[in-house]
Amino acid sequence: MKKLLFALPLLLCAALWAQDTPVPDGTTQEPPAQTDDAYAQEIISRFGAVETLQSKFTQEKHLAMLTEPVESKGAFAFSKKGAQLRWEYTEPFQNGFLMDGGKTYRLEKGVKKTVKGVMSRNTAAQMLVWLTFDLKTLSETYDISYFEGGVTLTPKNDKNRLLDKITVWFAKDNPQALSEIRMDEPGGDYTLLRFYDTHINGPLPKDAFL
């Protein structure tokens, strides 16, 4: 179970890295798609202005074989300067990963352990793309349709796909933040990330990337 929880945030990154198919949130009806260049430029502009970001999150992994979702909680911190990211679960286990420039570490109970391998570094780098919602980079891999309050992403190449589609909702009270990401997998399983207590362009803890 512990390994499953650690692998879940990396599924999102691996989906982008492998050019997989994304998904929307099933808790609400998906709004009609739009193609709006002006809206796309607005998204690029507002997320491009994010220099620092920190947030808490809850994660639900819904599996057909289980009657209840696998739930976890955590927090992350991001700084554009130096390409730094700390993604860490706090419940029910304490683990995660840390990216500091060109170095990537696995976190086990807050202790850094060096991670070797190009794919691990790429995976962490792709998480940066998602948390800052780099629309230009995402559009290289996905066809993007727009609706009021969010976007739906469908992979341009579904070879070796890990996901069917991804739906992203923007926070109503903060246009530079995400409120939810839902990732649907072939077969009906899905993962739902909900972000809260999000702070944009504020000071980060001194030990955020230590």
Identify the notable features of this structure and list them briefly:
210 residues, alpha+beta, disordered N terminus
Description:
By secondary structure, the chain is an alpha+beta fold. The chain has 4 helices and 12 strands. The chain has helices at 2-17, 37-48, 118-131, 135-141; strands spanning 21-23, 52-62, 70-79, 84-91, 95-100, 103-108, 111-114, 142-147, 150-155, 164-171, 174-184, 190-200. Strands 1, 2, 3, 4, 5, 6, 7, 8, 9, 10, 11 and 12 form a 12-stranded mixed beta sheet that branches. It is globular and about 40 Å long. The model is unreliable at 1-35 (pLDDT under 50).
Summarize the topology.
Blueprint: H1 2-17, E1 21-23, H2 37-48, E2 52-62, E3 70-79, E4 84-91, E5 95-100, E6 103-108, E7 111-114, H3 118-131, H4 135-141, E8 142-147, E9 150-155, E10 164-171, E11 174-184, E12 190-200
Parallel strand pairs: 1-10
Antiparallel strand pairs: 2-3, 2-12, 3-4, 4-5, 5-6, 6-7, 8-9, 9-10, 10-11, 11-12
Helix pairs in contact: 1-3
